[in-house]
Amino acid sequence: MKPHHWPFVALGVAAAAAITFVVVAGSEMPAVNMAVLVGVPLVVMYLAHLVSRRAAGKVLFEFRVDPRPSWYTDAVEVKDGGLEITAVSGGGRIASSGPTKVFYGFGDLLGISTRPAVPGEAPWITLTDGRGVPVPAGDVVVLRTTSGEQVLPVEEPQEFVSLVRSKVSGLAEVHSGATPAANQEVGQAPPPGGARTTPVEGPVVSLTGPSLAVRWLAGATLALAGTVVLPAVALITTPGVAWVAPAIAGVVWVLNRTVPRTWGRVAFLAVPATVFWLVGKGGYAWIPVVLVLCPLLGYLGGRMFRLGAGLGRTVEVRVPLRDGASLYVQRDRLVHKLNRSHDGGVHPQALWLGDLTLVQPGTSPDLHAWPVPGGVRTPVGNGPMLRLVARPQQWILPVEQAGELAELIRSRRGTPGRVERMSVEEWRDLHRWAVRRTTANRRGNYATAGIGWRLVAAAVSGSFAWMFLTIGLTVGILVTVPLTAGLLLDWWRVRGRMRLAEHAVLPPDSSDWGEIRADHAPIPGWQPWR
């Protein structure tokens, strides 16, 4: 049996043994049974993993990455006929197009040796989505094969070389330097040159909708009715109930008044505490009303600020895109949240409004796959689009109201963003951190997740904290108050660094993302509108 299979075999055997022990012992203590059924198999599996890493017959060598995410499986396996390399994430986002597999038969090997990694050398492998995986610091293995040289940053490189030499005799030493890097860590960029374009007449742009005052009057009235008024009325009309929760929710709404898309969630903040008191005091008739109408009214209030005229310069406007993604036009920046159907780690990307040098609506008759930094491709073309350039970045957004969106962006002024100076290694650390923070395990698959769950959890625990403070339950207070404060502080800490990652999707000193000249096409068939 191969050593890397030991942990799985150990898990199965330990689980069977734990179940047998619980049944035979007949323990009636749930805590003890749970500890045996869960703890023993996990401990045995971990110990088997440690032993397998030091086994004499080890044939699976993982590639070095720091830090190591939970989904990391990149490795090279020494098989009977050769070496099989499998790479799917490189320690970053999982490639949605599947793993990269490379096989070298023993007859293809001409030489092998180790050398120290060189800062700035070329990626050692390219994932299926076009991203290159950088070579980490430390010693690496260099294979010379009939098709060229292959760098392998494996753990325990000397042991790997010894194992390969034991399989293939007479391999020569390899004496060669590192290949300089070509920036591929975010995937293959679009071609840097495009054909000259001829502007065409676009559709008439007509921003329609109520005035800003009407939007605020209707939207704020609906949102505050669901957030404050309705829960307060339900509590006031129920004898013996305090109504502090709606007041707290009202303060949260004021803090989020320029982000209408959150008003439905904010309106739900007072609901758990309100329902708790209504159940305790017998106000059952109000419960379905509060559960349904509070978030509904908040949501309807936020819908008053859809794309159109009279939006002002401070309210965030969400614009849905044809590929399932969304663009958020904020006071001083644009945020592109990609379609969450991608595998984990597709974090939002952002541009400062003050950095924009080109806002160009247009169209293309054919459908194209536009590469987005990070190894993601999104369909563009065959309809209206908006082209945005803020060097070195360039976005092509498939949006139906391209002309209206362009007018909204032009109407908002911003100052150029402050450039964060960082080295390539610092950028890599930031990028990998952002990938880890936006990757979650859902039903056995890794998917993209946001960081806002901390605020939802803080809202729930905060509601219970307020209830425990009201009734004076000391144990509940000691648990929920620190938990709520910790969640809020963690969100604030993560949000600051995530904003930096959103604006730094390209490594330092990157080339422009494709053709950025206004009179040249970024994609084939591009037709800008006059």
UniProtKB/TrEMBL annotation:
Keyword annotations: Membrane, Transmembrane, Transmembrane helix
Transmembrane segments: 7-25, 31-51, 216-234, 240-256, 263-279, 285-302, 446-469, 475-492
Region named Disordered: 178-198
The protein's name in its UniProt record: PH domain-containing protein
Organism (species): Lentzea pudingi
Phylogenetic classification of the source organism: Bacteria, Bacillati, Actinomycetota, Actinomycetes, Pseudonocardiales
